[in-house]
Amino acid sequence: MARFNATVAAATLTENLAGGEAYSETPELELASLLLTSFAQDQFYRSADATFAQVRGLIRALPDKRFAAQAGIFARNEYGMRSITHVCLVELCQVAKGEKWLRRAVTNAVRRPDDATEILAYQLATYGKPIPNALKRGVADALAGFDAYRLGKYKGDGHKLSLVDAVNLTHPKATPQLSALMTGTLAAPDTWEVRLTQAGSDAEAKRKVWADLLESDSLGYFALLRNLRNITAQAPDSLPVACKYLVDPERIHKSLVLPFRFFTAMRELKTAGVPSFLLGALSDAMEISLENVPALPGKTLVALDVSGSMKGVFEKAAPFAAALVKRLDSDLLLFDAAGYCNGGLGYARVAVNPRDTLSSIVEALAARFTGGGTDFRLIFAGAGMTPYDRIIILSDRQAWVGYHAPKDAHREYKARTGADPAIFSFDLQGYGTLQFPERNVYCLAGFSEKVFDVMAALQEDRAALVNKIKAVPV
Q: Are 399 and 330 members of one domain?
């Protein structure tokens, strides 16, 4: 979710993936960036396999391998990152053999039984057998600690490597629930997923399951949001109840679902011919979710990258930008080096009516996403003479136009305005280079409900993220 340049001395001139001038990070910061942003998918400038190779190289470059363990635990437990943390743990176990803390680290990063199966599957696919002792014992310790409900929920039947396979590979200490799993007598847990599976292809049975889940309030908020299309198709009569929960402020605040989730759901549902009242409920829920964004003092500029390489993350970045603008009464700047966003100028100041809905603002921003190159110098040109207290940049940070980082443009902006704004530069793809080697500039990655807490912490402690990670017990 968040990363930054802890020390100016750590930044050295390099080249980013787009071929532009940038600054390198320390292996610690770069690894943290990858673990907190990568969803193990192909990206505009990098394949998933290349990401895994980069994780491998960074771990090997770390002077203290314990940091990789702490970062993996932190990313998994604090920010819910899964596949990339599995890669981290397996790769760490190849190079930190014999470390007493390694077994505990593996156990601490296995939050669910399917973490164990995924970790073992990556180990076998990448390195085969033998499985490193710390990895085997750490997974075994975690498996022995799971209750019958979680073991039943994540049995993994139908997968290449099931939970039964994981037990056979790691030989955990026997428990009654593991014995039941191995003998096939473990009862299926009463979850909504199991109930729907048991309904099979019977349309009436599925309708009754959805109706019962909603009437009994047995569906979590995120599960509700994720299944709106299924409810629409299989239990349309239950949609009014679903909408009642969708717009419940208490549920929204507890769930901490970010605005982009609602926008993504709306875009998917619009093509499914859903009732207009459902889209209206999603729009209302998105507005309520704004209250999760804390008010920040002072004047803010939000700079949104609309270059071509942002295509994969624009659906998240645009709602986040819109939420910041509405909640903080911020100025909004779009930038792309080709100037598509404003007839060749390269940047565009966008006036936002705070009474417009988030969804309408996002749709308007999406219409102006036309591609082009990336040039961070345009941000400071677009800021003009306004002395901002903070500048929030939403970008993949792959600036290349002119092949120069924006240090001079940044310095000139400060000189002409007398301002020294805190700059929060989001790296939305975790590519691992910086555009700013300056003080008072904080490089972050990804979004989560904790992003604003971290922004506040960064201004108090320049090494907040690294210190947090190094405080993780292993």
A: yes
Contact 396, 20 (CB under 8 A): no
pLDDT digit string, tens, across residues 345-358: 788 899 988 889 89
Rounded to an integer, what distance in angstroms lies between the CA atom of residue 327 and that of residue 332? Answer: 12
How does strand 433-434 pair with strand 300-305? Answer: unpaired
Range of 138's domain?
38-183
Supply the pLDDT for residue 93.
Answer: 98
Average pLDDT, the chain: 83
**Cβ neighbour number for residue 394 with a 10 Å cutoff:** 26
DSSP string, 182-245: HHT-PPPP--HHHHHHHHTT-HHHHHHHHHHHHHTT-S-HHHHHHTHHHHHHH-GGGHHHHHHH
Cis peptide leading into residue 113 (ω within 30°): no
SS3 357: coil
Do the beta carbons of residue 470 and residue 14 sit within 8 Å? no
Q: How many distinct structural domains can be found in the chain?
A: 3
How many Å apart are CA 412 and CA 268, to the nearest integer?
44
- Please tell me the distance from the alpha carbon of residue 335 to that of residue 436, in angstroms, as a whole number: 17
Residues 167 and 48 occupy one common structural domain: yes
Q: pLDDT-based confidence at 19, cuts 50/70/90? A: very low
pLDDT in tens, 110-124: 999 999 999 999 999
Give which of 127, 162, 166 is closest to 144, Cα–Cα: 166
Cα 62 to Cα 57, 96, 105: the distances in Å are: 9, 11, 17
Give the pTM.
Answer: 0.72
CA geometry: angle 104, 105, 111, nearest 5 deg: 100
C-alpha span between 202 and 234 (Å, rounded) = 10
Q: Is residue 11 part of a domain?
A: no
Does residue 23 contact residue 433 with C-beta atoms inside 8 Å? yes
